[in-house]
Amino acid sequence: MALATATVTAILPLRPSFTSNSNSKCSTSRIKISAQISTNGSPLLAQTFSGKPEADVIVIGSGIGGLCCGALLARYDQDVLVLESHDLPGGAAHSFTIKDYKFDSGPSLFSGFQSRGPQANPLAQVLDALGESPPCATYDSWKVIIPEGEFLSRIGPTEFFKDLQTYGGPNAVQEWKKLLDAILPLSAAAMALPPLAIRGDLGVLLTAGARYAPSLFKSFLQMGPQGALGATKLVRPFVEILDSLELKDPFVRNWVDLLSFLLAGVRSDGVLSAEMIYMFAEWYKPGSCLEYPIGGSGAIIDALERGLKKFNGRLSLRSHVESIVVEDGRAIGVKLRDGQFVRARKAVVSNASMWDTLNLLPKEVLPQAYQERIKATPQCESFMHLHLGFDAEGISDDVGIHHIVVNEWERGVDADQNVVLISIPSILSPDLAPPGKHLLHAYTPGTEPFKLWEGLDRKSDEYKQLKAERSEVMWKAVERALGPNFDRGKCEVKLVGTPLTHQRFLRRNRGTYGPAIKAGKASFPGHSTPISQLLCCGDSTFPGIGVPAVAASGAIVANSLVSVSQHSQLLDAVGL
């Protein structure tokens, strides 16, 4: 769910994406496609390219990772073509409009968009390289509803202390201070190497090693011998830092578990310390703030698309890739659902999940061990969603944009039906809803078991009944967050999404949030594959799940496909 810099949480489309997008400012950069809809809602493609059906690099999928990769490749003067199955770009981060309500596919907690330099978040670095900067509204708090009570959680170095005094034990404040004192000095090391400097070959010794070694060395000197030794924990599970500090307060441990789960889909025993320390540095330092892009998460996608177009990159919508074509052990292009072959002169990059990428490849060209490793990789569960449009009358003016509801600590933050996240982005970006209205998205964050839904007919009474039952926890959370004046019966828009929705419209294997890879036990795969000229980016690759991670993965792949000289020139151009 990614609460770290520029994070996006559980972004899932809840309707078919087969209508035209004539209102998009970027539509002129898109290749024209004609399409029909089959009886099951899937697009039947009749594709017409405006140019040759080939490119230096083909990117499969226009999620944030794919768009970052494609736009940077275009910035590097590569002929790049991004192929998207649906009619809107953005993948899990796209926006959609119903009855003049412009919904994010998923709510988001963003920060660090306005930061620049080596310590900026990866998405901000990519946007900076493209000359794009989406305007954002800033705020500093989110509402928390937990078994102990309700409070407005504010970010900053000392704002959380009063909440700890109220809901924690007698040592909670002291333990929290102890934690901040231990990890904030490590943030300099965690943030000293900008992801935009990383590439997947030995050239990284020049673009990252030689360029940033002095700042890394300085960070270690400032930390002293004990701090430098502690820096080795950056690649270990965060729980090891908690244990080494002997933090015992239940509220502190629960709170850290919640932040960890929202960041990476795992609790503190499974998240990398570097990820958590990066987030703590963004949230608990002086002057911290949260940001929301004006116009919703779709504004980020628009900015990436503008960057792609600015450097002559191409985006083709309704272009469903049926398979990756492999010849003599090399990926030479893709075949679309309509049978058309599109050639890749240099490389194919898949922004699909590892399981979906595997299904695009002929099994006979892959080592059996590689296939088995992917099949054995554990998955995060899926989601339930509730998108609502309603009258703002009677809703408090200070209701706030974000709410988190935890029903029981004892079950664990990763238990199904236990944690509900709520976003009301029209609070900060009123243009997303009609005048006098609000829109809202509530969801259960990667905790909905796919097995409950597997094999159900979406038109059946059984499916409809299960939707009603499993969505009730979200309705109740919304009613707690909005207060007694909210009436679910008066909502103008009601959309309930399930794991089957996620699987169908995001084309995600089993509707999963991504790999459930725990730090200390396994690591996210790199970006290369056993197939020459086939690379992968997105949440199935290093650094992992979440917007900062997928943006970084897209940048790393783009960097890897150009020379060290081109890469270094880009770093110089953006001041890294």
UniProtKB/TrEMBL annotation:
Domain Amine oxidase residue range list: 64-559
GO molecular function, one term: oxidoreductase activity
N-terminal signal peptide: none
Entries under Pfam families matching the protein: Amino_oxidase (PF01593)
Domain of life: Eukaryota
GO BP annotations, alphabetical order: carotenoid metabolic process
Protein name: Amine oxidase domain-containing protein
Species for this entry: Salvia splendens (Scarlet sage)
Taxonomic lineage from the root: Eukaryota, Viridiplantae, Streptophyta, Embryophyta, Tracheophyta
